[in-house]
Amino acid sequence: MSYLEDDLRKALRRTEPSEDFVDRVLARVNRPAPPEPTWWELLAAVLRPPRLQWVALSVIVSVMIPFAGVQYRQERQYRAKGERAKEQLLLAVRVAGSKLHQAQKRVLEVGRMDTRL
Amino acid sequence: MREYPEQTAQGSLSAFADIVREQQGMVFGLAYHFLHDRALAEELAQEVFLELHRHLATIESPRHLVFWLRKVTSRRCIDQTRRRSFWPKFRLDEVPEPQAVTREADPLLSRALARLVASLPEKARLVVVLRYQEDLDPADISQVLDMPVATVKSHLQRSLAMLRDKLARTVGEIAI
Amino acid sequence: MKTLWILTICVLVTVATYGQALDLKNLDKLAAKANNVTDVTLDGSLLKFAAKFLSSDNPDQAKVKKLVAELKGVYVRTYEFDQEGEYSESDLASIRGQLRTPGWSRIVGVHSRKDRDNAEIYLKTGGAEPGGLAIVCANPKELVVVNIVGKIDLDELSELGGSLGVPKLDFDKPKPTKPSSKKDD
Question: Distance between CA C11 and CA A107 in Å, rounded?
């Protein structure tokens, strides 16, 4: 065993993270999933025109600040969830379209090979 | 052999916490020696344990658990460096010369060595960390990293030569 | 030598496909071995919720919005592996078994012995339940399974070629082949 390898073992020995590491891992494990939007939230998203939505929001913020704070957070969570779902949908369509395309391309290649023979 | 994986599979958080306490030194150590950034290493280690929690039902034994943790940590280390250039890439010859130290001044030498290791190319760095932190032999490293054994040995050989050369310039000839 | 067999080529304007979602739980264990995993599960209200966030002003998203209007679910699993042999035919047995039940028809089956690539497309038609489209693509280092439940227009899905990263496919004009230029010795 060389001195260098001994020194490497000392330099690279296992190292402990911070003291509350386990607590932080458990906190993330226990973090609840964001709530599913209720049926009226979905309906409101369809029926609420954008302009009125911002007017209503500013009235709420100016008149009922505590409630506005909660409502704003819920709104953001709702939109964030919607954007995530949208991205997943686009990804799924991209994958499906791509694989369909690949299979069709192979089929066409065979068709061309057959006509060249 | 299947005691605590089964216990945690039944949802016992305290059993999972025991696993984290038991293995955190290994997981965090791997990440820290690879990334040489404490905050980033903690974040990466947390992600590894969260992934473990999601896949706990697939763990078959304590030995499998350790293998799984090493494999996933190694993979995430490589992904981390590809995702963003957080760790500035520099060649060994650009690393500032450590102060001349005697063999007795271990902490300085250890710190210098750790910095030199952190400047190795990614795959070589992982091989060295797995070899000297975890005391794995090349066959085990090859399984963890899905790398041919010959490649593992080549990484080890070249990395040791580079480290030896760099250290020799400061502390004199390294006795092998 | 390439081994190629094609069962049917169906370019249908609209395929009213009927069926339930495939059970893909058998594939979950592959996630631990895979280097990259894509897992999309959008059913019922979540699919409609996602579609609401598609912009009608963006032409590509508007097309997707139209495509998914009558769908009941979209499920995608992709697994990329660092090395071969991380999954086997037995992992796909459960899915292929479901696709052999009455109502499912394989409309395209492409197999390349040279590249060890398999691609299969299945449709489920008829019946009162929502329909189904399934795509299973397997090569030594990648496995892709797509299941779409509901009424889907294959033409519209193909028309997304060129947008969303889906390559455009030219059905009509075969590319002219360059004359071979053999060098004389």
Answer: 12
| Residue ranges of C 94-123 with Cβ closer than 8 A to chain A | 108, 110, 112, 119-121
Distances (CA, A) of C100 to A105, B47, B66, C108: 25, 40, 40, 14
Q: What are phi and psi of A99, to 5 degrees?
A: -70, -35
Chain A residues close to B43, C-beta within 8 Å: none
- Per residue in C62-116, pLDDT (tens digit) is 888 888 888 889 999 999 888 888 898 888 999 999 998 888 888 888 887 776 7
| Residues on B contacting C at a C-beta cutoff of 8 Å | 55, 58, 68, 75, 146
Interface of B with A in 58-87 (CB under 8 A): none
Q: What is the CA radius of gyration of chain C?
A: 19
Q: Residue C154 belongs to what H/E stretch? A: helix C154-159
Measured CA to CA, the distance from residue A94 to residue C163 in angstroms comes to: 9
Contact C32 B68 (CB under 8 A): yes
Region for C164 from its dihedrals, namely left if φ exceeds 0, alpha if ψ lies in -120 to 50, beta otherwise = left
**Whole-complex ipTM:** 0.77
CA dist C89 and B158 (Å) reads 40
- What are phi and psi for residue C184, nearest 5 degrees? -75, 145
CB neighbours of residue B90 within 10 Å: 10
For A30, the enclosing helix (H) or strand (E) is helix A21-30
Q: Is C95 helix (H, G, I), strand (E, B) or coil?
A: helix
